[in-house]
Amino acid sequence: MKEITKSIQHFLTLSKFLIKREHSADPDLQGRMLGVVFDTELKLDCNIRRGWLIETNVIDRSILFGTSRF
Predict the structure, then answer these.
(1) Which residues, 6 or more positions from 65, have their beta carbon under 8 angstroms from its beta carbon?
(2) Predicted pLDDT at 39
(3) Using only C-alpha atoms, what is the Rg of the chain?
(4) Angle subtended by helix axes 2-25 and 29-44, to nearest 10
């Protein structure tokens, strides 16, 4: 179980790194990723916690809530 947890953490760390770099190469990446989330929910008839995806930096908060303007 420890190895699985460690592997998932490494995957999430790598994902964060790549997503932050990928945005410059593909500005619509976050939108496409959210599309995959929606498609998965429809196909599996389930709900995926957006908060968890934001907390783990899989998707950017602004893709769900827009860009904050002060």
Answers:
(1) none
(2) 92
(3) 14
(4) 130
Closest by alpha carbon to 22, among 51, 60, 65, 52? 60
Write the single-letter amino acid at 67. Answer: T
Residues found in the chain: 70
SS (H, E, C) the chain: CHHHHHHHHHHHHHHHHHHHHHHHHCCCHHHHHHHHHHHHHHHHCCCCCHHHHHHCCCCCHHHHHCCCCC
CB 50 within 8 A of CB 59: yes
Q: What is the pTM (predicted TM-score) of this model?
A: 0.53
User: For residue range 21-57, what is the model confidence (pLDDT) as tens digits?
Assistant: 766 777 777 788 888 888 999 999 999 888 888 887 7
Tokens (6 digits) for 25 = 């190469």
